Amino acid sequence: MWRQREWQKISDVLDGMRDEMIKMQTEITAIPAIGPSSGGDGETERAKYLIGLLKELGLEISEYNAPDSRVTSGNRPNIIARFKGIYPTHKIWIMTHMDIVPPGPRDLWNTDPYQATVIDDKIYGRGTEDNQQDMVASIAAVKALKSVGFMPVYDVNLILVSDEETGSQYGAGHLLKVAPQLFKADDIYVIPDAGNEDGTLLEIAEKSIFWVKFTTKGKQVHAASAPKGINAHRANANLIVALDKMFKKNYKKKDRLFSPPFTTAEPTKKEANVPNVNTVPGEDVFYFDCRVIPEYDIQQVLADIKTEVANIEQKFGVQIKLDFPQAEQAAPPTSVNAPVVKLLKKAIKQVYNVNAKPRGIGGGTVAAFFRRLGFPAVVWAKFADNAHKPNEYCLIDNMKNDAKVYAYLAGMEVEAKEKPESRPAG
Ligand SMILES: [Zn+2]
């Protein structure tokens, strides 16, 4: 555990690293790293720069390239940089991603997205917040600790992955596939890839995302002779109402981790059917976006939807085809009592003087890859919520203070009572 004077020293060192962190941000921003499915050439050049930086710090580097013939290098790089700690009983993992999303229309930017620009307390540029803010913060934390000869309680491993913005198959997914033996259930997993403006959101759970496309076929006729046709649009209107009733009746459970604390099921996109008013549509297409709390299995949701679909088919004489643009059962949540939750809460309290709370969110993050394998991951960062927007920026104080959170974490011990009983003594 930290002694006050020792911590003060690290904290001061990090305060003094402001310009150095801005320099890192600038150099990283200048090397675009966009995945091939977003029209880029991957993360290799950026990875080379980062490996150089991590080697300079004297960290032990392991590389886990995922072959991908769509990029010039033929590989999507994934890096683990190890800062050795005292005890082998646990490991700290801080995972950030190297890839960025394209800047989008340049005329929406006030500065060059690949030229980091400091204005007041912000650094503007694509990727400066998502995910460079905390990539730089985690590297700076290690550098600060090393500069004063501090040895972390447990190994601190920085994971830098590819492909987070486009599915993670070549990133975290690849790493967990080829090197699962590196990871243990009582390790500390921090994924600083989402968060809120006061740093109080510890994301430990996600809803299942279930998107359903309904393609309904009837019979197209002139509206004047409507009875000769089968109106697919009317059938779908009735189906939407039936689905609404079904969800209200069957999905009442609440889960207080989430806001809203229940399952949502919304009719969203509606495709154009006939171009003119006087035609009865023979085909009609709409979508549902369902966010299902983890207590429910999406197979059950599917079965319930199919029952309503069968009723409408029978009643209106239509045929309804179902497609699933996204169907991802939520990973089991990280326990609110997991050591990572307790340690992060304390570190955040120390640095930001706020009480962070474990909560769930409605969307999916890369943490699910870890949680599915039983590795308790928390998604946390103090973010100004700029990801993917034009004029993305990083608040310099967030970067510096998140670095302090990681540095503080490196000096903390998992309490004995929090350890699983079956764990062998280290
Ligand atoms: Zn991100």
| Alpha plus pi helix count | 10
Determine the CATH superfamily of the largest domain.
Zn peptidases
Number of spatially distinct domains: 2
Name of the top-level CATH class of the largest domain? Alpha Beta
Structural shape = elongated
CATH fold assignment of the largest domain: Aminopeptidase
Q: Rg from C-alpha positions?
A: 25 Å
Fraction of helical residues: 25-40%
Q: What small molecules are bound in this structure? A: zinc ion
Secondary-structure arrangement, i.e. CATH architecture of the largest domain = 3-Layer(aba) Sandwich
**Largest pleated sheet:** 6 strands, mixed
Order of helices and strands, N to C?
HHHEEEEEEEHEHEEEEHEEEHEHEHEEH
First-to-last CA distance: 18 Å
Structural overview:
The chain is of the alpha+beta class and 426 residues long. It folds into 2 domains: 4-205 and 332-418, Aminopeptidase (3-Layer(aba) Sandwich), CATH 3.40.630; 208-328, Alpha-Beta Plaits. The chain has helices spanning 4-15, 18-29, 44-56, 132-147, 172-178, 232-250, 298-316, 339-352, 367-372, 396-409; strands spanning 60-63, 66-67, 75-76, 79-83, 87-97, 117-119, 122-124, 154-161, 188-191, 201-206, 208-217, 221-222, 264-270, 279-280, 283-292, 319-328, 357-361, 377-379, 393-395. The strands form 6 sheets. The protein has a 6-stranded mixed beta sheet. Strands 13-15-11-16 form a 4-stranded antiparallel beta sheet, covered by helices on one side. Helix 2 (18-29) packs across helix 4. The longest helix is centred in the middle third of the chain and has 19 residues, at 232-250. The two termini are 18 Å apart. Zinc ion binds next to loops. The site of zinc ion has 6 residues, from loops.
